[in-house]
Amino acid sequence: MKNLILIFVFVLYGSAASAQDKGNVLIKNGTVLTITKGTLPETDVLVKDGKIAQIAKNIAAPQGVRVIDAKGLFVMPGIIDAHSHIALDAINEATSPVTAEVAESDAINPMQINIYRALGGGVTTIHALHGSANAIGGQCQILKLRYGTLDPDALKMEGAPRTIKFALGENPTRVHGGGNNIVPRTRMGVEFVIRKSFSDAKKYAQEWEAYNKNKLVKGFRGAPPVYNLRLETLAEILKGNITIHCHSYRADEIFMLLRVCKDFGIKKIVFQHVNEGFKVAPELAAYGAMASVFSDWWAYKFEVYYSTAYNAAILTRNGVVTSINSDDAEMMRHLYLEAGKTQKYGSLTDEEALALITINPAKQLGVESRIGSLEVGKDADIAIFKNHPLSIYGVPQYTIVDGTVRFDRANDPADMRLMVDPKQNFDEATFFDKGVDHCLDGTEFLFTNDKN
Amino acid sequence: MNRLFTNQWARIVFILLIGLCTFNLLWAQDETTIAPVGKSYALTNVTIIPSPGKKIEKGTVVMKDGLITAVGTSVTIPADAIIIKADSMYVYAGFIDGLSRTGVTKPKEEPATQRPKDPGNPPAEQAGITPQSDVRSELNSAEKSITELRNTGFTVSQVVPYGNFLPGSAAIILLGGKSPDGMVLINQSGLYSELTGARFVYPNTVMAVMAKWRELYKNASLTKSFQTSYASNRNGISRPGSDRVLEAFYPVIDQKIPVVFKAEKILDAQRVLTLRKDLGFSLVMADVKEGSPLINKIKSSGTKVFLSLDLPDEVKKDDKKTEKKEAAKTFAENEKEKLEKRKNEAIAQATAQASDFNKAGMVFGFSVLNAKTKDIQANLRRMIAAGLPEDVALAALTTNAAKLLSLDDRLGTIENGKIANLVVSDKPYFSEKAKVQYVFVDGNMYKMDTKAPAKPDGKTVAKGTWNYTTERSGGKIVIKDDNGSLSGTITSTIREGETELKDVSLDGSSLSFSYEFAMGGNTGKVEVVVKIDGDTFEGTMSVGKFGSFPIKGTRDPKSK
Amino acid sequence: MKKIQLIYGIATAALCALVFHLEAQNPKAKNGTFALTHATIETVTKGIISDGTVVISNGKITAVGNNIQPPAGAEVIDCKGLFIYPGMIDGGTNLGLSEIGADPRTQDFNEIGDVIPQMHALTAVNPNAVAIPITRVSGVTTVLAAPQGDLYAGTAALINLHGYTSEQMYAGFQGAVLIFPNTGRRGYFDRRTDDEIKKAADNALKKMSEVWNRAVQYQKIDSATKGNAGYYPEMQALLPVVKGEHPLLIEVNKAKDITAALKWVKDKKVKNVILTGVAEGWRVADDIAKAKIPVITGGILELPVRDYDRYDQAYANAGQMAKAGVKVAIRSGENGNQNFRNLPYHAGFAVAYGMDKMEALKAITIVPAEIFGVADKLGSIETGKTANLFVCDGDPFEPKTQIKQVFIEGWQIPLVSRQTQMYDEFLKREPGVNKR
After folding, report:
1. Which long-range contacts (CB under 8 A, 24 or more apart) does B511-515 make?
2. I need a labelling partner for A324 at 20 to 30 A (CA). Which of A102, B18, B139, B188 fits?
């Protein structure tokens, strides 16, 4: 109940600062799964000002600091979902095959109940992605699940690198080629759209460079080039300031993008879903490309028909930095189970399996120095489990973001909504179809006449 | 015909009414306004509230040629003035609305167009990018909305064109006048915008709307400075083109006019504040409904705010509910209680918004966009009950609104020289049963049609099951009477199912009610007024702009 | 000498590789007599037997217990340190009826019409669906293949996941599916008004009742005319349901709808009913228990259906119903991505969030067998029952656990699926990055 009252205080006084609260807490006597530095039995973790200050046995509790008794519990870094669409009011700007200029940072919704539900699954950071309707989609946003604030900006992970969504295969070809008779309708078209966009951006950047140079010349009075936020953004990708996260399934299209990136000098690239990544694992490893995959999703459309649940294991064994993601508000609540499946499908070790949902996604997002493992100096994003997180019986008890307890299984009330619709109808219930990827959310209208 | 009546519902109604419409149109044209004899009025023996917190008892207000010419207790009334004895009445400066579409004609809905060829590059109009549009071309002095809003005491509105993203510029108009231009007080009072995307085409989502906003603004800045540079010396450089869309931003860039944003929900408001922070324009937010948590943010940004006069309905308390002991409650009862509590808190929070702004020392006005005019007075009373001082409520309607819209030299108070916009009510405006009696706009008088409140004559009984017929349809109306509180349902041969009746009241022998219905995805409102004579009734049924037609009914006597 | 050894070694290796290769290409199930020895046997119905033996012969379990001598000629499989469980039963899938979710040409579970009980799922089950081996190698040996759609959507059938014709796969149960009119939303994109939803549901409800009344009438005429009531395929298909020979599988999820369904069943005196889905069963669990109607609920891994529900409500639902005395089976509900192999994880999550572990195991073995009226054949490890079982190296709910053997109707199933084949091919791909 305490939490609820607190939330009302936020609502009434709208203190955005509350979201950035850097908490202090001492977690006593847990089995600490550091991920990068082994497993430490009966160990304490001290959090000061939102950072991990000390990991050791028998740390004395500083005065006034909340102590969580984790005896018999498992303490692990907060889970990171490298592919999510929660906490967003808009997922797809599906009107054009290239929409690099749009950004999820403009569509954050900090009040979605799915944020709290994700905390209930030990998730502390998500990569909130644009959808996959477009060959080049919108910019994405790394969010910390500081549920309790009404301020969308307070969810943004400070200083997190910029990322952008690309998409290959059926989704962009179906939306634009199939739906609107606009290139791309094939995987050939997808490659062309991307190459053309990069080429245009290159030219655009050169034009501006020339203009800015000329402007320094005394007496120059020429017209400025037209400002184009789309090309502006694409040019940032070419400069290496924005990382591509590419929705992809088939081996051929994955390989295609590797070649495009090589031609345009783009070094860091993360593939999303990559169901057939296992077929080109050596190529991915050689390029240094990373892969964020489903544990076992397949069969929901043709391009995922030739998938295997052994994908993560094959990629890992081939040296590709691999993570397991959800793309789904439900699945993200048990990414630890999804990671656990790699022990069935490919016999990964505990540490390898847990890395798939902690340090590896952190590397993919470029925030591995901040989160993804329990180390002194890192952000205090922590999930505390009853039973080992790779066990089916693992149940998150507390989820801590920046040292602030945002989920407390024993003490939180059932109703955790931050804002209530004053016109609420109490008889609303929504039943979802299971097993559809959410990358096309918001594009339903495009398929009203779809004869596929 | 298809162009006029694009949707199924409209077509059905049209077919039903095809014979009647012509009649109604002719009748409507017969209505003429009788011009006043003089242009001078004197309100006498009236309690004057010249500005919030001030009061002149038994005073006189004189108006001439659209201006207030005298205010006080010892005022000479000009010989040509029409004297209005306003004994025991109260006069206030006319109210000012910060955002609405009062008097703006709603464009006919375009027929469902074919899917655009290239949804990524639609024509600007389809994309909702028409900032160069002038709301004056969409104004109609005969719009019913003008009368409706004026009847609640409003005399001035900031109005904007219909549309989503960048529909055009706002104008401040008087709620009375013979022509669009005659109503306009300030043209181009702001550039109006909403964060709503276009249907099916770019920009469709809020992300694209925000991105496009930034891009347009940046390009407008660039072209503007290049045009300035070109204007200073035209020799030797290529001529800049003309671009109406970008040029519409120039006065915003020059800080000559603000951007007026609809910011109903808390996220809208925050996104709008983000745009302002990124681009630096001066901002007016209106239709604000969830602003309380953002007060500090709004205040520090220097944004001007108009709070919505729309409030969520109050939940009727169920008196019959007996309090059970906590332990005896089922899970469902407990849950429902908690949910209702939170819902009531949400309603209370919405109601307390104005008070929260006041407590934080924020100056604000009100906007009526999307507020039902019939609820405005009651909503103000609810806000006052939730802690908003009456003076502050009045200031928000008058002086503060005038200041926020830079009208305070001409409007907002009852002073010599100001525009003669006044509202006269029989009791203090914020008291329970206060009724507006007169409204003056620009010195023109509008007398309210103040009927006595509905009172049954004691003889006529409405209760029972009535079989009714209209020209094309029929059905059953069931009226229930619960100790004088009437309710009921209606069925129709052209619709399935039962519809709940609203506002059922019996005045003398006149029974009136309304109901809403949905057809083909649209909703419409039907208003019915009939005279009951024994077990029969006769009257009219009105369907919005489609006009009205006769209805007859007989009662099953056993059902009385 | 060394050279000879080397050549011999290479030859053996090549031969082995060839044999392995052939096996991998043609994985065939094997029939015969098997003795699984030294295993920990979870019989489900008769407790746990340590260091026990299960004998399989001629499709049946012929012996279970300690001190059992493997019959002569039996293939003995040493299961020391391993566990034997009855094959898991997923009581609601579209397995075999759908190959690829987004491709309608591969989907055979949703026929046109809303009064089509004469549409038989068993007809359309593809015995060679790629998902079948993928499902069975995880220990799920039996599933209900069910049609979907509106109202009387067709007739579902229970199938064993091995066989080359529908006849070979049929596991002895059929029931008519009724999709009860839903007053909930189908997703965020469902923008109908409350009134529209209610109206659609009311109309459907009316139609549903009318059809049922007609079926009852048909049954009377049929019995009066001794089976000569004429060719009414819908009515003929409902005949066994009206008589109570086939159950009516009522798919219903929202609390209010469940209550309405219970009332409808009572009013119409439907004799044999199974509720399926039942996502909000916990809200009306006492009423379901009182009505003595069994439930097949799931998936468990779902979001709560209301924004104010407790975050783990969907996980807890099965356990809460069981606690209230409802007979609960668990299904995976993973139709979209054909992941029926996740059935044990659905059950495991129910346990993690409050259900008794044994109840959860029963919910995917003996309880669905009972609900489908095939408990004499399936759902437990008992002498005389069909030999549907699997051997594993730990708790089958745990993702770490590996399946070591699967038997379906006594056939030893190769632990091969397209997904394992791709693992074998691609773990160390040849060639790697460089072809030469």
Report:
1. B511/B460, B511/B462, B511/B479, B511/B537, B511/B539, B513/B486, B513/B488, B515/B490
2. A102
